[in-house]
Amino acid sequence: MCYVLQIARSTFYYEAKEQATEDDVTEAVVDIFHKNRKAYGTRKIKIKLHERRFVVSRRRIGRIMKEHGLVSTYTVAQYRPYKTACNEAATANILNREFDQTETRRFVVSDLTYVKVQHQWHYICVLVDLFNREIIGHSAGPNKDAALISRAFATVQGDLHQIQWFHTDRGSEFKNEKMDELLETFEIGRSLSMKGCPYDNAVAEATYKVMKTEFVNQMEFQSFDHLEVELYDYVNWLNNYRIHGTLGYMTPAQYRQEALKKLSDLLLTIQILGGLDIAVGNALAEIQAQEEKE
């Protein structure tokens, strides 16, 4: 047929694909931007557009955002280096800036940050699992003390014995009898940053920087109850919906599930290979027995 019609075979087999219109792409960009707390820039919006089967360049996304006044709250610069003397305290820095962990809950890091509620300062504490940057525990309160941290531990799902090390800076709220008793009860090891060096607790610092930009600075808390409700909602979004560049643009929940799947597949492979070894061993034993009989 192609010969008779004098057309190329590729033309005959070409399947026309409906191109997305500018309105479709614009609507998707605006929707993704607002559904993710105005926190995504062109890079993350491009990832989410790809999930919706839109192939769009970051330049085009940036143009659409500019036309519609969509300005991401996310900022890149987060830290300044500090030069301080080595801390000679008995508790060592076990973490030693090894922030990429391959085991869940091996290292949990924490810090405190402040927020205003009706012109009064309140404080937020979060517990971050370095394995997948998931906030596994959180709390808020009017006082910056050990009780605030204890309440954060109380919200952790699962057995606290699974936490191997707890790393923080050297704030006084992290060093008292109540905290020592909690950690001793659940056999959780202690790791402390060097004195005056925020880089030693960089992930916790980064988490609060993002929280300030995406959450605290976007809200006006009318009461403590309002803060607690909004904090719970934000943590749920961050863990289950917010994609992270350090996690290959997966959410913390997705990253954990992928890791569990890989582990399950590995164990299954080992089990199958182990079964084959047993079967081969039995077969060889039978052959040897037959040879001895002969």
Can you describe this structure?
This protein is of the alpha/beta class. The chain is built from ten helices and five strands, in the order H-H-H-H-H-E-E-E-H-E-H-E-H-H-H. Helix 7 links the parallel strand 4 and strand 5. Helix 4 crosses helix 5. The longest helix has 42 residues, at 252-293. It is flat, with a radius of gyration of 27 Å. Mean pLDDT is 85; it is low at 75-89.
SSE arrangement:
Blueprint: H1 2-5, H2 9-13, H3 22-35, H4 42-51, H5 58-67, E1 107-117, E2 120-129, E3 134-141, H6 146-154, E4 165-168, H7 177-185, E5 189-192, H8 202-214, H9 224-240, H10 252-293
Parallel strand pairs: 1-4, 4-5
Antiparallel strand pairs: 1-2, 2-3
Please provide a brief summary of the model.
The chain has helices at 2-5, 9-13, 22-35, 42-51, 58-67, 146-154, 177-185, 202-214, 224-240, 252-293; strands at residues 107-117, 120-129, 134-141, 165-168, 189-192. The chain has 294 residues and is an alpha/beta fold.
User: Pairing-aware structural class of the strands and helices?
Assistant: alpha/beta
- Count of DSSP E strands? 5
Rg is 27 Å
Instruction: Give the overall pLDDT as a whole number.
Output: 85
The best one-word shape is flat
- Give the distance, in angstroms, between the N- and C-terminal Cα atoms: 70 Å
Largest sheet: 5 strands, mixed
How are strands sequenced across the largest beta sheet?
3-2-1-4-5
Give the helix level as a range of percent.
40-55%
List keywords for this structure.
294 residues, alpha/beta, five-stranded mixed β-sheet, 10 helices, 5 strands, 45% helix
